[in-house]
Amino acid sequence: MFLLSLVASGSYYINQIYDFDSDLKNNKLGFLQKNMISKKEMMILFLITSFCSIAGGFYISNILGLIISTLVVLGYFYSAPPFRFKDRPILGLLSNSIGYGLVVPSAVLPEMNLHNVGLIAWDSPFYFICTVGAVYILTTIPDKQGDSETSKKTLAVIFPEEILKILAFILLSLSAYI
């Protein structure tokens, strides 16, 4: 859990660097917008948290090291140019749904044994993917104006709010069914 928290922190740090302008327009006043820390210092924090989480993962097991490495790369690709998955509607949805819905739950794999293998049955990843996808869709809606003003192509910029709410409802319904 600690290593996954470090990965998440690093992902948020790099996201703040590359979302500075839209976060400012959307009144999301983080460390950078409040001048509490510089972009260079934020990048150093991203590198430190990423390195520590990867090293800790490999210390525990090769499988966990690979899972955490995948999350760090996905977090970087989500925010940083030229990839910027967060600014592309389908890639943003998939990277969140798969990253948090499939890759994070797979972090328990090194602890699998005959007594707890049911924790990650085939239905669990689909449940998490649908749930995280629905939440991600809804989180794009409040950022629509700032994202649009900074030329991002997020789900909320591309699709009407009503369509996004229906899609989120469908995904949540699927997760409840699963």
Characterization of the model:
By secondary structure, this protein is mainly α. The protein is 69% helix and 0% strand. The chain has 9 helices and no strands. The chain has helices spanning 2-18, 20-25, 39-60, 62-79, 89-103, 123-140, 144-149, 155-158, 161-177. It is flat and about 45 Å long.
Q: Tags for this entry?
A:
single chain; 178 residues; mainly alpha; flat
Brief write-up:
By secondary structure, the chain is mainly α.
Number of helices: 9
Indicate the low-confidence ranges by residue numbers.
Answer: none
Helix content: 55-70%
Strand content: under 5%
The quaternary structure here is single chain
* Topology, number of strands: 0
Instruction: Determine the mean pLDDT.
Output: 88
Task: Give the radius of gyration.
Answer: 17 Å
Structural class: mainly alpha
Anisotropy-based shape: flat
Q: Main β-sheet, in a few words?
A: none
End-to-end separation: 25 Å
Name the helix and strand elements from N-terminus to C-terminus, one letter apiece: HHHHHHHHH
Topology:
Blueprint: H1 2-18, H2 20-25, H3 39-60, H4 62-79, H5 89-103, H6 123-140, H7 144-149, H8 155-158, H9 161-177
Helix pairs in contact: 1-3, 1-4, 3-4, 4-5, 5-6, 6-9
